[in-house]
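Design a sequence for this backbone.
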């Protein structure tokens, strides 16, 4: 009987189950990846715990192996899997239609098999190539093939989301796409434009090369293809969090979204401007014409605009909400937000961190300023704010509402999760601000500094206090992570279930200024046109450089430097 009830649990809306599988797998990846974070923070404080870690986990051989696992699992795997689970569910629920369920499960299995394949060489120290896997560092073929399967899974999800949207449009002619669905579909379309570079890099260069079918690869060509995807991938991480900020946060905060059409405009701007900007990661690369570096600089500044609009729209939505509840003062109104709701707590703290992270991004984007900070700890200081704080916290907050909603299992010890969210914010802000300062003092990123001779460590003595701060932040984050993962996994693993009537709802925001009757909204709804335009722009901006580098293909053999 009990088994039967469990089997029927998702019968009302089967997409719940596949979404839950994605979210669970995402948190398993994040749990493993996060484990290495504090060790990296202690490394920069001059404390080398890797020999001790090797005793505990004999397969971990170095800082670099841990760093590779950390980057791949947290930044690439967690973000993608969570987006697949959450967006697919939110879109289906809002449209009240199911995606093609067989294809949805196929996509989950692809991601799962890819993850296992990539994890084997990572854990065996056979693919310690960091999460950027720049050739001529050469990892085991299984790593590249596994990673490629994970990307294929994401592209299958693009199909699922777009197919569901097109079906809804056919059944609802003349109606604007509902907002959360609009944002989800645009996110997947943006990703499909972004992913082209990585797909070509993997299929044409890395996989044949790692299998020995290709003698060598051109490092500059590979890097250029990598950053074609490598920049917009950060918006593929960010936009699912923006879906929560626009689509759920105002409702959970107890109010309304300031403007629905503005939210659509923001997502459309991301679709068009996210991809043609990758050279801002290659300012220091020789062999790319400075003219094109300048073009990418200008376009990078353009892609900051939708985030600035977001800062305005979300802050306005929150302020109006709080003032309606009696909030007063320039910032006193903040106290009136519904802080007990995990979506509100995590998203707002995450958004605050992004004010600093975004400002740093604009520094990086400046062709000349970037030379000061490139390849220093400033860069991980920068990206831990948007991806490890804004996005990750938002997903954690959403998970604490979505998991009980999907499973009927009540959150175990919510106050511990709230404490964990606040500590995560404090730990990340401390670490990231410290890393920015260390970077300005010349401390390199990705350096096993605690393993270096004292005279090398001594070269950075000016930054000593910031490095100690980094270690302290690592300890705070260890406590934060323990609390949050305890709550998430205790919730998932319990057998208790709430009766259907008591299950928490995921509330979609209503807008103060809505989409009804606006021509602009219908123009923005012509998504196939905008999607096509995004492809045209990205090819126009990349092809001249790629064709030129390809025509002088430098064949570098592979190296294993670990
Ligand atoms: Fe970045 C490097 C430029 C955003 C992630 N970035 C990285 C790397 C990562 C990363 C992972 O131009 C390192 C890659 C590697 O390993 O080498 N980044 C930018 C720019 C932006 C930006 C211009 N980055 C992100 C986001 C990321 C991310 C988002 C992850 C999710 N980044 C760069 C550049 C480099 C780079 C160069 C290469 C540097 C080098 O030398 O290697 C912009 O999109 C930022 C715009 C954002 C804003 C902030 C808006 C603020 C908001 C919050 C409002 C707050 C509210 C709260 C509403 C302008 C939306 C109010 C609440 C109250 C209670 C008051
Ligand atoms: Cu970028």
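Sequence:
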């Amino acid at each position: 009987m009990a088994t039967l009830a469990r089997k029927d649990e998702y019968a009302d809306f089967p997409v719940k189950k596949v979404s839950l599988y994605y979210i669970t797998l995402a948190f398993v990846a994040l749990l493993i990846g996060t484990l290495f974070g504090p060790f990296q923070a202690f490394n920069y404080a001059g404390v080398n715990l890797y020999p001790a870690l090797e005793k505990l986990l004999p397969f971990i051989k170095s800082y670099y192996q841990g760093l590779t696992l950390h980057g791949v699992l947290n930044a690439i795997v967690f973000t993608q899997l969570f987006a697949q689970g959450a967006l697919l569910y939110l879109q289906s629920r809002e449209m009240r239609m199911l995606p093609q369920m067989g294809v949805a499960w196929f996509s989950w299995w692809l991601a799962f098999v890819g993850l296992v394949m990539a994890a084997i060489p990572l854990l065996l120290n056979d693919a310690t190539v960091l999460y950027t896997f720049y050739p001529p560092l050469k990892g085991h073929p299984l790593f590249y093939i596994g990673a490629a399967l994970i990307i294929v899974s994401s592209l299958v999800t693009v199909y699922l989301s777009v197919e569901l949207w097109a079906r809804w449009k056919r059944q609802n002619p003349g109606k604007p796409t509902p907002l959360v669905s609009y944002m989800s579909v645009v996110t997947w379309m943006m990703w499909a434009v972004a992913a082209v570079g990585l797909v070509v890099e993997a299929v044409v260069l890395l996989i044949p090369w790692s299998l020995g079918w290709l003698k060598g690869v051109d490092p500059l060509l590979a890097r250029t293809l990598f950053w074609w995807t490598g920049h917009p991938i950060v918006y593929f991480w960010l936009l699912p969090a923006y879906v929560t900020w626009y689509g759920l946060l105002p409702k959970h905060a107890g109010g309304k979204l300031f403007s629905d059409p503005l939210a659509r405009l923001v997502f459309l701007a991301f679709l068009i401007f996210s991809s043609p900007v990758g050279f801002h990661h290659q300012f220091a690369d020789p062999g790319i014409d400075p003219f094109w570096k300048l073009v990418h600089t200008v376009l990078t500044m353009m892609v900051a605009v939708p985030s600035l609009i977001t800062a305005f729209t979300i802050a306005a939505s929150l302020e109006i909400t709080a003032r309606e509840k009696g909030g007063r003062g320039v910032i006193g109104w903040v106290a009136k937000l519904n802080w007990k709701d995990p979506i509100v707590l995590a998203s707002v703290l995450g958004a605050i961190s992004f004010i600093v992270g975004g400002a740093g991004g604009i520094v990086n984007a400046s062709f000349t300023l970037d030379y000061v900070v490139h390849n220093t700890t400033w860069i991980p200081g920068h990206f831990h704010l948007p991806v490890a704080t804004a996005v990750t916290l938002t997903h954690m907050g959403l998970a604490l509402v979505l998991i009980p909603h999907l499973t009927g299992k009540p959150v175990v010890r919510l106050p511990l999760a709230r404490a964990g969210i606040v500590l995560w914010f404090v730990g990340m802000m401390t670490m990231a601000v410290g890393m920015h300062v260390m970077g300005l003092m010349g401390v390199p990123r990705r350096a096993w500094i605690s393993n270096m001779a004292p005279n090398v460590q001594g070269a950075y003595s000016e930054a000593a206090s910031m490095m100690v701060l980094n270690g302290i932040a690592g300890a705070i984050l260890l406590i934060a992570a323990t609390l949050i993962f305890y709550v998430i996994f205790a919730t998932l693993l319990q057998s208790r279930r709430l009766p259907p009537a008591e299950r928490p709802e995921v509330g979609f925001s209503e807008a103060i200024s809505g989409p009804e009757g606006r021509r602009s909204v219908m123009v923005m709804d012509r998504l196939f046109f905008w999607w096509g335009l995004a492809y045209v722009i990205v090819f126009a901006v990349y092809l001249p450089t790629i064709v030129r580098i390809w025509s002088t293909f430098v064949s570098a053999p592979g190296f294993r430097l670990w």
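Residues 132, 234, 237-238, 280-281, 300, 303-304, 307-308, 310-311, 314-315, 318, 334, 348, 351-352, 354-355, 358, 361-362, 364-365, 370, 373-374, 379, 382-383, 386-387, 391 surround heme-as (ligand 1) (CB under 6 Å).
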